């Protein structure tokens, strides 16, 4: 496994991603919060993938018949959310976060949050809540301008988003 070293930085060494649930090398190591621009783009990518899933499954349902449109579209959305949920639960990353090299971590331990916090509270509760509570999405997003750059869903789920750590092997 690649490790951080006291040796000088080698710009010619191949980068090695940190594997496993830990994002920080040791408890107490501080990792900066991912910048708001990368977080926004990751959410934008995820939302565009959701729209594509709705359109594709909606078209498939339309071909199947009028009554099948809603069933197929909702089934496609359920598959999308379950797939994203599995990625977040296992890697701390949605598809957008993978592309932008950021990940969700528990605010206290720096590890990938458990399913209840990382997926149910952080993602699904705010998605469903936004359908019922006016302006929840706007209030949630505006929290990014707080001093520690965490959105409201991060505070509720006790998470934060950090850049994916890359270490360099000097072997």
Distance between the termini: 11 Å
Task: State the domain count.
Answer: 1
Largest sheet: 2 strands, antiparallel
Q: Helix- and strand-based class?
A: mainly alpha
Total helical segments: 6
Q: Any low-confidence stretches, pLDDT <50, length ≥5?
A: 1-5, 20-28
Helix share, percent: 40-55%
Overview of the structural elements:
20% of the residues are buried. Strands 1-4 form a two-stranded antiparallel ribbon. Strands 2-3 form a two-stranded antiparallel ribbon. The protein has 6 helices and 4 strands, in the order E-H-H-H-E-H-H-H-E-E. With 171 residues, it is mostly helical. Mean pLDDT is 82; it is low at 1-5 and 20-28. It has helices spanning 36-64, 66-91, 95-99, 115-132, 136-142, 152-157, and strands at residues 15-17, 102-106, 159-163, 166-168. Helix content is 53%, strand content 9%. The chain has one domain. Helix 1 (36-64) packs antiparallel against helix 2 (66-91) and helix 2 (66-91) runs antiparallel to helix 4 (115-132). The protein is globular, with a radius of gyration of 19 Å.
């Amino acid at each position: 496994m690649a490790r951080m070293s006291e040796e000088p930085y080698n710009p010619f060494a191949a980068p090695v991603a940190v594997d496993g649930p830990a994002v920080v090398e040791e408890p107490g190591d501080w990792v900066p919060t991912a910048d708001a621009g990368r977080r926004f783009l990751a959410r934008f990518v995820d939302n565009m993938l959701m729209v594509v899933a709705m359109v594709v499954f909606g078209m498939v349902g339309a071909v199947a018949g009028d009554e099948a449109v809603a069933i197929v579209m909702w089934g496609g959305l359920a598959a999308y959310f379950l797939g994203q949920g599995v990625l977040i639960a296992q890697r701390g990353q949605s598809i957008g976060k993978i592309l932008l090299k950021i990940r969700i971590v528990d605010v206290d331990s720096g590890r990938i949050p458990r399913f209840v916090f990382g997926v149910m509270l952080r993602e699904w509760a705010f998605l469903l809540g936004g359908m019922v509570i006016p302006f929840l999405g706007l209030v949630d997003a505006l929290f990014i301008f707080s001093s520690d750059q965490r959105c409201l869903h991060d505070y509720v789920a006790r998470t934060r988003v950090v850049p994916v750590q890359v270490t360099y092997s000097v072997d």
